[in-house]
Predict the 3D structure of the following.
Amino acid sequence: MKNNSPRRTMRSREGAEIAPRKSMGQNFLVDESISKWIADQIQPDDAPLVVEIGPGMGALTEHLVGRPKKLVLIEKDYQLAPELQRRFEGREDVEVIAQDATRIDLRPWFRHGPFKLVGNLPYSVGGEILKHWLTPPSPVGCAVFMLQKEVCQRLGAKLGDDGYGALSLLVQKDWDVEMLRIVPPEVFNPRPKVD
């Protein structure tokens, strides 16, 4: 039987074919201008440390490398982490950690002082990542995330709004939440069914 659906693989800089994993909620950002815009929002220039969660194919990473004094990439995907390690081998200012961002021990991160956190987070674990990294005590001082629009609306919802709930309260108790921009599905491969 022939499959007429379009191929969903992408080629990494190193030439490997990478297929987004539905089980991991992967939708790779492929728009250069939006990638740069998101990277700029964290204001990485000369920051002591920027941590990117889930760099995937490196769309945001491309616009972060060389800007902070240290860039740490945390990638869970066993196929993508080695690609990133090869890509940045020999760079002392970039470190790749092959771990699950929802399970990583945050205690050693406090020695860095408040640092900046950025990521294009999958819907399936976005809330877990937020809880893990942003619940006090947290080593994070500033964070910029791309999440499904409905999750962002819940994060920023005020008391009395339809989306207001436990996640809103948990995050707003310690963080100022601001929705910066709505990004359409066309800038991802594969295209999600949501903004």
